[in-house]
Structure formats: structure tokens, C-alpha cells
Fold this sequence. Notes:
- This protein is α+β, with helices and mostly antiparallel strands.
- The chain has helices at 17-24, 30-38, 75-78, 108-114, 118-125, 155-166, 238-245, 290-301; strands at 2-9, 42-44, 60-67, 79-82, 86-91, 146-152, 171-179, 186-190, 193-194, 203-204, 212-220, 224-231, 266-274, 281-285.
- Strands 4, 5, 6, 7, 8, 11, 12, 13 and 14 form a 9-stranded mixed β-sheet that branches.
- Strand 4 (79-82) and strand 5 (86-91) form a beta hairpin.
Amino acid sequence: MKKNSLKLIFTGPIKRLDAFISSRHEEFSREFSKKLIADGLALVNGEKYKPSYILKEGDQVEICLPERADTPFEFEKLVLFEDESLLAVAKPAGLCVHPTDSNWERTPQASLLREETLVSLLFSARPELAALPRLGLVHRLDRDTSGVMLVAKNETARMALSVQFRDRLAKKRYLAAVSGRPLKDTGIIDAPIGRASGFKKIKVWEYGRDAITEYTVKEKAKKHTLLDISPHTGRTNQIRIHLSYIGHPVIGDKLYGGESAARMLLHSAKITFSHPDTGKSKTISAPVPPEFKKAWAKVKKEE
């Protein structure tokens, strides 16, 4: 198994080696840091020490991150755009962004050694991003949703992009294939979303957080419709919940009542935002994946 090396220089108040490693990235738990040290994957000035070793000013900590040899994804083929401050990738459907809660621990062990995720791909392809919170990721996509994801490459860009997503200044457009045919060619779904007491699944709930989704019909089939989606808010599973709520669940969405399909037919087609360096508006688009087109064609053929 190959390894990628991440080098960090220790500065600041006295700190244990394991505490320093886990403090540098939220994905590193203390237990995972101890395991890295015990396995000789975290060295101080080229030497192996115990997790309790007290770091000194100027100590160089080198962390070796395993690279999965069996990954089905070629990271460079996923890159849509890259410059000094920003990386944009096309996340495939079926790829989690972070290790899932169902894994035995929500840390890179699961990501790097058990389940391939966007986090593990970034660790392998751009190990320097491990110095940033969440490896510079400023938003998320569901496992089964494909499309554009933005990654900041430095702290200034991360803060600037995070503010845009927080303040709803970054505009996202999705493509969704749904069951049925909406009565109107355009519409706005304004329904709060939350997790009611006693329910595991997030759903439309009167005491939930505000959530607004706008849609426009892009293509009509006999019993199905292809929609252009513009979420005005960014709640978890918002598009899927809202479309199911109005009786038109996303095809392939098992959680919210969608018809069976090879994949969930939801794709993040483009994001428009202000570039953190220039302040100019920039739009990054992700082509519709071949398997999305194939699944949509199959749905229409079998009507």
C-alpha cells in the first residue's frame, strides 16, 4: 500500500504528539492518531515516539497517509477546475463525501482502509489539504447524488467560500428525473424540513427549518419528468424531500419513495459563486454522467 506524506511544523503551547495530530484535523480522532503513531505512520523529526511524547517548538511531525491501491476512481479524471486557491471535482454517484455514520468510527480509518470516500481520494491526491478543516470541503452532496463539489486549497479561500454557502450567495442547479408529471411547468416548494421527535428520517415538518426549492420542467415523458432544480436553501436531503412531498419523488431514491433504478437520478449540474481571489462570478459545471443518461433513457423506453 502506497503512502502520502504530510509534514507539519509544531508551534504553540506544549502538547502531546497524539493531541497535536488530532487537533490539526477534525477527521483525526485521538484513537486514530494513537494508531498512526503506534504503526510508525506518524514520526517526529524522522523518529518514532510514543503518543505521550511532548512536542517542542520547531519539531517536524510527518504523517504518512495510506493510499488505497484498489480504488475504482481516478482522481485526476474527476477534476473539473483547479487553480492556486480552488479545486472543483465531479463527485460520482455512489461515492460518500465523508465516512458514514454506519462505519465503526467516523475517521479516516473507515475512509482510507474500509470505504472509499471523497475524503480518502483527497488525502491521496492532495495530501497538503489535510492541514485544512474538512480538507477544504465547503459543502456536501448525498452519496447517491453526482456532480460539482468545491474544495478550497487555502484557509482564506475556505473562509470566503464558506461564507457564500452560509449566506446563500452560492447558487446551485440540479437535474432531477422524477415520477409523474407536475401540473405546472414551474413551481416553488416552500415547506419546512426537520426531524420530528421519534422519527429517524428527515421530512417536511411544521416545526422544521425553512426550506425552499424552485423547479422548472426540462423534459416531459409519458409518466415521468426531467426537472431543472434551484434550491434557495441548503437543508439536508432538501430536494429529495420536497419532490417526494409534492408527489414526484426522484427516480432511484429508495429513502423517499422513488422508483427503482440503477442509480438515483439527481445530479448537481452547476455552481455559481464569487471566486475567492478575484471576486468575479464563476460558474463550474459537471457534465451529466453517462449512467444518468442511460437510466433516464431506460425509464422513458419502459413507460
